[in-house]
Structures are given as C-alpha cells and as structure tokens.
Amino acid sequence: MASSAPNELTAREAIQKIEAGELTSETLVAACLERIAEREDTIGAWQFLSADMAMEAASSRDTAALDQPLRGVPVAVKDIYDTADMPTAYGSPIYEGHRPPADASCVAMTRNAGGIVLGKTVTTEFAYFQPGKTANPHAPGHTPGGSSSGSAAAVADFMVPLAFGSQTVGSTIRPASYCGIVGYKPSFGLIDRTGMRPLAESFDTVGLFARDVSDVAFLASILSRRPALRFDDDMAGPTAIGLCRTHEWAAADADVETVLDTAARLASAAGCHIRDVSLPDPFSKLADAQALIVDVEAARSAAHDLNVHRERVSESFVKRAEAGLATTAENYDAALGITERARGALDAALDGLDVLLCPSAPGQAPEGLHATGDPIFNRTGTALRIPCINVPGLCGHSGLPIGVQVLGRLNDDRRVLAAAHWLRGVLRRG
User: Fold this and answer.
1) Do the strands 388-395 and 401-407 form a parallel or antiparallel pair, or are they unpaired?
2) Fold for domain 6-229?
3) Which class does domain 240-284+335-429 fall in?
C-alpha cells in the first residue's frame, strides 16, 4: 500500500518516485522537516539540524543530473561521525561546537551518491552507555535504546527514511528492536569507518537504520561499492534457519520467548526448515570476553579526554574505563583468544543452515531515559564480527516492539540481508 505522506515513504519508494518525476527531493526534505518540527520536542532525536542547509542541498539535487543513486533522499548522521559543515560533539560536552575539517568516509560517500545529510542525531557519550535526551517514539517515557538513540528514533518516527548508527556492543540492533525498525550491523570492515569516533577498535562497525530491509541493503551497496548487496523483492528466502537462544537466554523475558517462538513458527509455516542450535563451548564465555575487550579499548580511545577533561566525562564512562585500565595484558589477550576461537567454531555451528535466528534484546524498551537497556544479546554477533540484522514486526505484552535478530557468516551479508527481507515479509503476513 502506498504511503500517504512523502516522509512516510521508504528510501527506495522515494527514489522511484523521484526518478518518475512524481516527487522532488525538496518536497521530500520539506515533509521530513515538517515532521521533525511537529515531534522533536517530544522525541529529542536531533543534536544539530539546519532546515536552510537541508533545503538548499535538496534544491541543488533536484537540478542535478539523475545519475546519483540516492537521488536527494535525506539521511540522518549519528553524532559520532565527522561532518565538515556541521558540529560533531560525540555525545560529550567536551566537544560542544567542534567542527571537524572533513566528512567521515561514509558521510562523504553518501553526499557523492546524492544523499542529503539532514542533520546530526543524538548519541550516547562517545557511543557507550551514558544516555542522551532521546525518547522512544512508541512510548516517550521509555528508552529508544543506545548508543544510536537519535538515529533509531528519527527513522521510527518518520522524520527521515535512512540513518547512520554504529555498533561496538549493541548500538544498532538493540535500538532497532526497541523502536520497531530495521537495524543492520554489517560484517566488520564492510563499510569504511574513517572519520568515526572510535570506541573499541576490535569491534567498531558502521550501522544502518531504515524501515525496510531493502533500504539498508541499497545504502550498504553504495557505501561498500558492492552492487551485489542490492536485491529484488522476489529474491528466494532461506531454506534452513537455526533457532539459537544463545548462552545468554536467562536474560530473556517471557515476551522474548513468545516473540522468538512466533517468528520460528511463522517461518516454518512459510516453508523454511527450522532447527534448534546450541552453540559450542567457546561461545559460553564470549559475551564476557567482548565486554572486557570493549572496556580496555574504550579506555585507550578516550585517553586524552580522561587525562585532560576527566571532570567532564560521565561517571559511567570513567567507571568502565577504570575497569579497562585495571585489566592485565594477559586477561586482555585471553579475551581476544576467546573471540578468535569462537569465530573459528561458527562455521560448524552453521553447518547446513543459511542463518541463525536469535533474540535482539531482553524484552521491550525499558521504562525511563536514565539507561539504554541491556545489550547482552548483541555481544555475540559483534564479537564474531558477523552481519546482524534486527527484523521488526512483533510486539510484547504492552504493545511495544520487540525484534528478532538474524545472524550469518562473516562477509555473507547478501544471504543475511535476503533472509531478513524474507522473514520481514513472513512476519507482516503472519
């Protein structure tokens, strides 16, 4: 069914209308700005926004040749990515008003492809756990998740069709689950991260948000220069999915159990073979190892801020950094070894399967804006550096969204995207 307002279009729908002469970038951007004006006081998704800059850029796109694939579609940029024409504060008062000299690679490539950078969205401090001002569009008294809080909320609230997030622990998948949208963490390194504020170099990954799987696939194909990631709606779905509750299953509430079972049942009814999968021993310690590595590397990446501006760094970040600094080199190396062994064991766990189906989050978005929720179900996929996608479409007991997570082999992103796209259709019909 066609959307009634331009800002409610998916990115691909908008591109098709622009190509057909039925829509202009200027009209689309104006509709997004109108939605932001209506809702921003409630949602608080944006750190920086300039309507004049956005409209000027859209007007320029409309008069340019139609050889740029994004065709003037607006994109929100998480405020950990450098932008030469907008301030970049990394979620910290230390960098208020900071103007980087150049765009981050993914931002520059978005502009080169004809995308409009609509503005900068709220991030937690340095993309870790200290929350910002953003509320969940479905229930403003609840968190949208983090650290990509503003990007997820902006896409979910029809303020923009595409947005950049990031993931070092669970900063794309968890907010996508809480906000009821698609969140895609590609294989590690698929999208260049130059110009992205580092948190933990072993895991930092550019993440993407949209309301449709084909949209994140399309944007990823541009940013990675891999056209094969794009796909048509009639692509074949997976033949075999592994239902994996993971070693962290004790953290899941009753809603998650219901949602995961429902997704598996509907996928089975749609003709896909479902097989229960228990991950082998190397995975049992993976979440703890990932957490330790992040703390160590976060202390490194923020060394200057902790040395010079410690009083302006949040207590929560200082606590995690101190834990990292207290970790011995031997324990850090042992944690890295756990991740390497788990990566080596993944192919055997996936033998005969296209993808795994796992929880995205422990439950619905928690109440309150003082925290962003537990990323426990995201640590495994991030530690493995594999593609992970939140597939929305189901809800918990109070009606708030809960997603399910599709994971696959490293650099097998097309198969994972196709499986998520197929499952998204199954959940819609179910």
Assistant:
1) antiparallel
2) Amidase signature (AS) enzymes (3.90.1300)
3) alpha beta
